[in-house]
Amino acid sequence: MMGTSLFASVGAAPLAAVSAAPLATTGPEVTAIEASLLIFVVITATVTALARDVLAAVIVFGAYSLGMAALYTFYRAPDVAMTEAAISAGVTTILLLLTLAKTTRIDHEIAFESVNLPAAGAAGFLFVGLLLTMADVPAVGSPDAPVWSNADVTQWYITETYAQTGVENTVMAVLAAFRGFDTFGEAVVVFGAGVAALIVLHREVFA
């Protein structure tokens, strides 16, 4: 219990600040910030997939991950945003750059790959299908959303978290206590990435 409380107290402040912030959207309309983030994510994902230069693809992929982290924050999921920023934009990008530093970079006369039309058509079909479902998605923070109206699950965590864990921040309590094994698994993934970086560098320690 003390370990859980200590872990939670370290990360509770930034998460509580985000949770206490006013809701960014109160209706089904798409705000300018949300639209800008979505467009940025789509553009960076497309450039990452089509770029022939591996270094450029890695850099743009890091920008894509930061865009996703900002989007997760906008949707009031700060725990997912921190994981995306730390693991994907941080550790993964560094590991890829270290790998490139140990390999030979090939110069390409053509900046982008040619578009595979069948694959692009399939992706476009899936994209349109997902857009058709957006009308049924509740607004961010809506009290009518299933996640809030589910008394058997969500409301139980909201009302019982402090009594069960002694942690005031519900998000941190879920991460460190209720789904502690899953969080431990994520920590193992980070450790594995660090070991892989050491193997690529042919070094025993970071120095």
Question: What structural keywords apply?
Answer:
9 helices, 207 residues, flat, mainly alpha, single chain
Strand content: under 5%
Number of strands: 0
Shape: flat
Q: Calculate the mean pLDDT score and round it.
A: 77
| Element order: H for helix, E for strand | HHHHHHHHH
- Give me the Rg, rounded: 21 Å
Number of helices: 9
* Count of domain modules: 2
The oligomeric state is single chain
Residue share in helix: over 70%
Main sheet record: none
Structural class estimated from helices and strands: mainly alpha
Q: Low-confidence spans: pLDDT under 50, at least 5 residues? A: 1-27
End-to-end distance: 35 Å
Can you tell me about this structure?
The chain has 207 residues and is mostly helical. The chain folds into two domains: 14-113, no CATH class; 143-207, no CATH class. It is built from nine helices and no strands. α1 runs antiparallel to α8, α2 (32-50) packs antiparallel against α3 (54-74) and α3 packs antiparallel against α4. It is flat and about 60 Å long. 14% of the residues are buried.
Topology:
Blueprint: H1 2-20, H2 32-50, H3 54-74, H4 78-101, H5 117-132, H6 146-149, H7 154-165, H8 170-178, H9 180-201
Helix pairs in contact: 1-8, 2-3, 3-4, 4-9, 7-8, 8-9
Brief write-up:
The protein contains 9 helices and no strands. With 207 residues, it is mainly alpha-helical.
